[in-house]
Amino acid sequence: DKNVILDIGLNFRRLSRMKVLIVFDDVTCFSQLESLIGSLDWLTPVSRIIITTRNKQVLRNWGVRKIYEMGPLEYHHALELFSRHAFKRNHPDVGYEKLSSKVMKYAQGVPLAIKVLGCFLYKREKEVWESAINKLQSILHPSILEVLKISYDGLDDKEKNIFLDVACFFQGEGVNLVVKFFNASGFYPEIGISILVDKSLIVIDSYSKITMHDLLQKLGREIVRQESINPENRSRLWHHEDTYEVLTHNTGTEKIEGICLDMSKVKDIHLNPNTFTKMRKLRFLKFYSSSFNGENKCKVSYLQDPGFAEVKYFYWHGYPLKSLPSNLNAEKLLFLELPGSDIEQLCDGVKRHGKLNQIIHAACKKLIPKIPSPTLIPHPNNLVALNLTGSKSLKSLPARIFNLEFLIELDLSGCSKLKRLPDISSGNISRLYLSGTAIEELPSSFELLLRLSWLDLSDCKMLKSLPSSLCKLKSLGVLDLHGCSNLQRLPERLGQLSSPILLNLVKTNIEKIPKSIFQLLVLRRLILNYLFFDQSNNFKLEGNSTAGIIEDSQRTEHMGHVAAARWKEVREKRGCPKEGHFVLAGNEIPRWFNFQSVGSFITLEMPPDFFNNNRVLGFAFSAILAFSDRHVDCGRWFSFSCEFKVKTTKDCDLHDTRLFQSRVNYVESDHLHLGYYLFCEEDFNGFWKCNCIPEAVHFNVFPPLECQCCGVKKCGIHLLHTPDSTNSMEDPSRCFNCN
Fold first, then answer.
1. How far apart are the first and last CA of the chain?
2. Residue partners of 63: CB distance under 8 A and separation at least 6
3. The CATH number of domain 144-225 is 1.10.3290.10
4. Would you list the DSSP string of 465-489?
5. By the 8 A CB rule, do 499 and 475 touch?
6. Which CATH class is domain 419-527?
7. What are the extents of the domains in the chain?
8. What is the DSSP letter of 379?
9. Cα–Cα distance measured from residue 600 to residue 97, given in angstroms and rounded to the nearest whole number
10. 270 and 246 in contact (C-beta within 8 Å)?
11. CA 69, CA 61: separation in Å to the nearest integer?
């Protein structure tokens, strides 16, 4: 009502000289705020406005400075809220603990779901609880559905299609793949996905995966389910029972746009050759198996005129035919994945001149030994990824495979008969996987792969050497040589690499690390775990092959050089990590650590002006992590950290700083963790502001209840100085006292 809004606006202006708190709840659009209060000029500087909305864009348009996104309730808070509604007390009744836990797992911290389900289950018998919980796995409670659907109803048709496709098919998929699929479907995903994110309907996580809350996924699937009581008249099929019914009875219709079937959940399906004929709008087809040893259960002798003209995504685990359907239109096809299939030709049957981005023929045992020239691949210049993992018959690659303009990922892992790569004249490949191949050497022209960031040569047991030209790959970030048992040396100039790199040398025959490794200023991780399993499944150390490496790695000048170089990078704000970490087999703290202690704790006595000393660079730290034989009960992975304890002379929240944290795995021998932490400008300013004095360093293994089989045996600390200062303080004993 415009008159009501006008009256409210006049009343607001009467508050112009007062300190006020105004709350606008559930705002749907910017115009609502604009109509209510106009500009913010009339508010006093100390007044505050709180706005709740389902759309972040409303807040941006209004110039909101701080946006707080509500997260899920923590478990104990969620359980207390649920108990207040389900039991009228702060905890579940006796005998209802496990049932309440199941409800918590379903609600996942969403207050709306917790309150609705609590009220719904109040004073009901256990049998009713069990039935209700089982029903909720497939059908949303109407009250929850009604509220969640408000945001969905505010979307346009393209955005609704994106939401429903994610809910039915793309939960957890990479955003790049999804964007290409939606673009090909005409859904304008760049703006559509942005709007869905703003309305908290989907999330793009730190790994660039598209995810959504389980309740929102159930909402999307329930919307599709309500399209028709008959599954063949719905736009999307994802539930194995519905899909099985449609395929076995051959009742598919043109309404079906996507099918996703987990074959491990159904019996064998003998497809009619005309199964897909009526599905003229089919955009997405995925037959997969969630079982590790899954097999193809969709049997068919041939396909007669399948309706694949609109298919963009075609995935069929164990595809039973030797060639693809003749009308699989590469003009529309973007992703072709046929792992474990009987296919014999790479793209046989696909019409040429299309948009095909990705081909995956993993574990195709019948694939011919020689794949065709790129000129025979449908529109090769659009190809972004080629995956032939586990194709054991493959012996050679076409000469121009690396020349494809847009090819950025080539996966040949497990192609055990592949012995050599063709010479390279150019290429944009950034990820190359050669794990488990019979490669004996890399071509000298390898240096022309200027954009290569990930090179996986693990378990290439025939590989004896690496070309010196490898050092020219300025973008290389990961070099995995794990299991290259015939590899005896690394290129001497490996230190010329300039990008942050992870170097894995586990189970190689390398006896000496090139000195240039320690000039590698951005070495992220160097893995030197020289362990192997003997016939009794126990770890043993290859002492002779590791002695030189350990001696090299523990030299103080190496640690000092790496830390000093990193310090310079950090000071110049180049984004270089301010900590480094090495893990080596061993049970002794290096001798150059001035102060060592038995156990996990070192106390420090520092002068009051310690952080005002511009010679201080940081700390080197070391710890021996030991494992008992009680590993059966405590799992395989643990977290290990080093914390810097401080005391403050001002009222300040700063009490400790975690210098380092890493995940470690169980082994049956002691291992040395060796690293450093550099103080950056923020550290100095923070410590100085609070008048902080370092008090102790503590090494932790956690969570403690699960890690009784793992502990810190010894530890050490060493003060590092800036490159232009002396190697040690005038009297180090004045700064450290170890207990």
1. 74
2. 40
3. no
4. ---GGGGG-TT--EEE-TT-TT---
5. yes
6. alpha beta
7. 2-61, 75-137, 144-225, 419-527, 556-734
8. S
9. 39
10. no
11. 17
pLDDT tens, residue by residue, 206-248: 788 999 998 999 999 999 999 999 999 999 999 999 999 999 9
- Mean pLDDT score of the chain: 76
Q: What phi, psi does 220 have (nearest 5°)? A: -60, -45
- Cα angle 626, 632, 633 (rounded to 5 degrees) comes to 95
Token pair of 161, please? Answer: 């299609």
How many Å separate Cα 430 from the centre of its chain?
18
Q: Tokens at residue 245, please?
A: 């019914």
CA 63 to each of CA 20, 68, 118, 143, 184: distance values in angstroms, whole numbers, following the listed order: 19, 14, 38, 34, 35
DSSP β-bridge partners for residue 204: 210
pLDDT digits (tens, 9 = 90+) for 610-636: 666 666 677 788 888 876 654 434 444
What pLDDT, in 10s, does the model give residues 89-123? 999 999 999 999 999 989 988 998 999 999 999 99
- Nearest-5° angle of CA 114, CA 118, CA 124? 150
Name, of 18-22, 123-127, 159-163, the range with top average pLDDT. Answer: 159-163
Cα distances (Å, whole numbers) of residue 739 to 489, 601, 605: 43, 7, 11
- Amino acid letter, 250: N
- From the list 731, 702, 706, 705, the residue with the least C-alpha distance to 719 is 731
Q: Residue 625: exposed, middle, or buried by beta-carbon count in 10 A (0-12, 13-18, 19+)?
A: buried
Could you count the other beta carbons within 10 Å of the beta carbon of residue 201? 25
DSSP 209: B
E-strand stretches of 295-425: 298-299, 313-316, 335-337, 358-360, 385-387, 409-411
* Token duo for residue 457: 């040569």
Fold held by 556-734: Jelly Rolls (2.60.120)
As to burial, measured by CB atoms within 10 angstroms (0-12 exposed, 13-18 middle, 19+ buried), residue 671 is buried
Angle of helix 75-86 relative to helix 97-107, nearest 10 degrees?
A: 120
Looking at residue 703, its amino acid is: P
Non-local CB neighbours of 423 within 8 Å, separated by 6+ positions: 399, 443, 445
Q: For residue 158, what are its two tokens?
A: 């393209």
The span from the CA of 36 to the CA of 489, in Å, is 73
3-class secondary structure, 226? coil
- Close Cβ partners of 66 (under 8 Å, ≥ 6 residues apart): none
| 600/605 Cα distance (integer angstroms) | 17
Alpha-carbon distance 172 to 175, whole Å? 9
74, pLDDT greater than 80: yes
Cβ neighbors of 194 (< 8 A, separation 6 or more) are none
| Radius of gyration of the CA atoms of the chain, in A | 31
Is the separation of the CB atoms in 263 and 317 below 8 Å? yes
Are 471 and 494 a contacting pair, CB within 8 Å? yes
- Placement of tokens 């400008």 in the chain: 681
